[in-house]
């Protein structure tokens, strides 16, 4: 928690202001019982009405001043806590944005969502309570003890019994509750994970009639969280009655022994009344601390989880001294590249070597799990190679800024992703300042013009979240247009034609050939018809290159390629 509080630096002036106001409020509350004692012991006893009015007026002014300080302190505390939460969310989001896919895989998407929302909210709420209660409670406690001793030192010995008992009780409750708060956040992660999978996989769930199974799965995660929450709340709920019980017994003891001292003439009635007020202030400050400790353990767990996000350094970072690019623009070269996913027993790719240059189409084909998408991910530096190197224009991609690397690439992923917004905004995601002519040209090449024109609003038609209001083929064509509009040096199509019919794909490939004539094109595909016209075809099998060449060459030299071709094309088509 303390590590997170360093982010309060921009609000240091507000925090100082809150502390000053809380000090003034505490001073007012501590001063009022003394004035009340003076009225009872001096004004009432002597019958001096003027004295009572004068001191009573002072009490009224002090009370109004205390209320004013409390209101302003609450307002400034709210501004500080809310601003802190906003800034912390921005920092967490910025840190997550810098993560490589390795960090995403390690922490998990559902957990990152929980940490950015629920965990930061927990810390924000505790900060608000800390500024209002945890700062005020010690002032009231210490000030109350001093003022109580000033009223009657002998009677103050009762506090030596009440305060340690209260402290021990709070410590026991916190020790039992702390592990449960940690379990709660982990189970909240699990609940978010199940819910996210249910929402994103609703089509599959309904298609396989697994609705009841998913309900049971969600209920199990929900009940698990509920059971833990009930257990921890039972423990913490028992704290408050115990605090009040101790406070009431302390009051009884003060009245009992105070009456004895008044009867012996060692104490005045006003002093006893003031002492009771100070004792209540002391005990109430301990109650406030106990309430704080109900919130603090969960916030501490949340703070640890937030710090884990902020302190996790991405594996993939930009070099401090990037190298200058030279040579052909868009010339890509793999040199004995091997890659193993973190924790995997076997390498996903082994000794991959090939080159691809401008004006050349390189196709990558292979069976499922052969490493095609992994190879593409390495070009974009979503992961770093385990050994070997990938060169772009003669420079190792690890020695150039990620932004500069990806600015040279137009990428169409295997799973087309669209964002909520208009069709125009989704296409301009590839190039923010794209002109109307560039947008229309990209859509023309991507064979998307016809279905866009059929929509009522055309390019201003709204795309729902995740692109659920367009078909798979339309998604792919918009994703292709998004890559084309930026006119990069390298085009990467990762199985980007799978949702298109053969006729549309043929038109698209013909249009692409003209559009990408001067660029390096890499196509990952399952269909032989998609790759057979490529200048160079690379055949992958179990992460290794088992064939390299054009279509005719591979038919003669590569058995794996012949098997793939035979499974898709008839003898007449082969001829």
How does this model look, in words?
It is a single chain. The chain is α/β, with parallel strands linked by helices and 575 residues long. The protein is built from 21 helices and twelve strands. It has helices at residues 12-46, 49-97, 101-107, 109-134, 136-151, 159-200, 202-207, 211-237, 239-263, 269-311, 372-379, 402-407, 423-427, 436-445, 449-453, 472-484, 502-515, 528-531, 551-557, 559-568, 571-574; strands spanning 332-339, 349-356, 361-366, 387-392, 395-396, 409-412, 421-422, 462-463, 490-494, 520-524, 536-541, 544-549. The chain has a six-stranded mixed beta sheet, sandwiched between helices. It has a four-stranded antiparallel beta sheet with strand order 2-1-4-5, with helices on one face. Strands 7-8 form a two-stranded antiparallel sheet. Strand 4 and strand 5 (395-396) form a beta hairpin. Helix 5 (136-151) packs antiparallel against helix 10 (269-311). The longest helix is centred in the N-terminal third of the chain and has 49 residues, at 49-97.
Task: Describe this structure in a few short sentences.
The protein has 21 helices and twelve strands. It is of the alpha/beta class and 575 residues long.
Q: Which labels suit this protein?
A:
575 residues, alpha/beta, ABC transporter transmembrane region fold, Rossmann fold, 2 domains, six-stranded mixed β-sheet, 21 helices, 63% helix
Strand order of the largest sheet: 6-9-10-3-11-12
Oligomeric organization of the protein chains: single chain
CATH topology of the largest domain: ABC transporter transmembrane region fold
Summarize the amount of helix as a percent range.
55-70%
**Sheet having the most strands:** 6 strands, mixed
> CA-to-CA gap between the ends?
71 Å
Main CATH class of the largest domain:
Mainly Alpha
CATH superfamily of the largest domain, called what? ABC transporter type 1, transmembrane domain
Briefly note the structural class of the backbone. alpha/beta
Number of distinct beta strands: 12
The Rg value, from CA coordinates, equals 36 Å
Average of the residue pLDDT scores: 84
Counted up, domains total 2
Put simply, the count of helices is 21
Describe the global form.
Answer: elongated
CATH architecture of the largest domain: Up-down Bundle
Tell me what portion of residues adopts beta-strand conformation: 5-15%
Contiguous low-pLDDT stretches (5 residues minimum) are none
